[in-house]
Amino acid sequence: MTDRELDLIISRIxxxxxxxSAAIVLAGGIWYLVESAGASPPFGHFAGVPGIHALTxxxxxxxxxxxxxxxxIATPVARVVxxxxxxxxxxxxxxxxxxxxxxxxxxxxxxxxx
Amino acid sequence: xxxxxxxxxxFAVSATAGFLGSLTGxxxxxxxxxxxxxxxxVDLHYAMGASLVSVIATSSGAxxxxxxxxxxxxxxxxxxxxxxxxxAVVGAHLVSVIPISALAVIFGAxxxxxxxxxxxxxxxxxxxxxxPLAERLKLNGAYPDGGLSVRYxxxxxxxxxxxxFGAGMLSGLLGIGSGAMKVIAMDxxxxxxxxxxxxxxxxxxxxxxxxxxxIYLSRGYIEPGLAMPVMxxxxxxxxxxxxxxxxxxxRVLRLVFAAVVAVMAAEMIYNGxxxxxx
Lengths: 114, 278
Fold this sequence. Notes:
The complex is a heterodimer. By secondary structure, chain A is an all-alpha fold. Helices cover 73% and strands 0% of the residues of chain A. Chain A is built from three helices and no strands. Chain A has helices spanning 3-35, 61-89, 93-113. The radius of gyration of chain A is 19 Å and the shape is elongated. By secondary structure, chain B is mainly alpha-helical. Chain B has one domain (3-274). In chain B, helix 3 (44-69) runs antiparallel to helix 9 (194-218) and helix 4 (74-94) packs across helix 7 (157-174). The interface between A and B is large, with 69 and 62 residues.
């Protein structure tokens, strides 16, 4: 695999993740606006609820939107994972190491935050 | 204001943010956070969550185009991501130790100076052949410019790496500002062409931001109803911005970059004095 091919595949991963997550968020968003059409936006005060709190409001448009957002957040992580595999296929061990460190730190900081 | 109208306003603001963010490599947080909090009365925690979403959306949306066109340098991005992600972890742990307000004021001042510097481009732009370490790490590359492929060398890899660690640490400490440091380090220190610096920064900020996603999600900063118009608006703006960058003159991009960084610096200094950041 040449660097150019790697570019094209990473580009497709990013585009695919973005399109899919945008479609999910849009679907949830339309549902959300239909349900809350008359209400005023409730974002003036921080509710301070711990946990990924929207997940407790099942079934709700918030859960659909959140699923799209999680996919969006996962997209850059997915491209790091794919690059590591691609560098391994190229036997470019220096970059396998570099991406592995990035992935390790990323996993640590996402999980330790939860 | 009812909820649909509110969403339309947030969408429009976010589209502007995504446009500027994708052109400058800074992400959309500079615009999103102050407009949401100061103009629309959104709580700062939700605004920070929306800002994180906007950075990831700008990054992935525009990077798909930049990587395909051959602007972003993936190896440079991957290599420097070690420094930024490690820096972010260290920074997050120092939050309780370091006086954030003072740091915000100092960093704001540094950014103002850097914005001024970045207007002038490189001082000695003569290509010295770069750094042997860049050769070993295959960091040197080429980018498209008016139908031609222009080759470039990467200089001062270690200094750039160190500065990126600092950039990551500041982003962990202050919540924003890492995109600006990334562009400045690549452009001014590593002597990477400006369009490659901004698009590679754009490519990287998604990963740096994703690192903070766990803590934002668990604390409930990411409110779906608010993040929805932010994400969709930012994506629309960043896709439009990515189309413009290809043909835009570097001189114009430098001006836009300097202006946005100056606003960001002013915000940071303001937050430092009012203590609104944390």
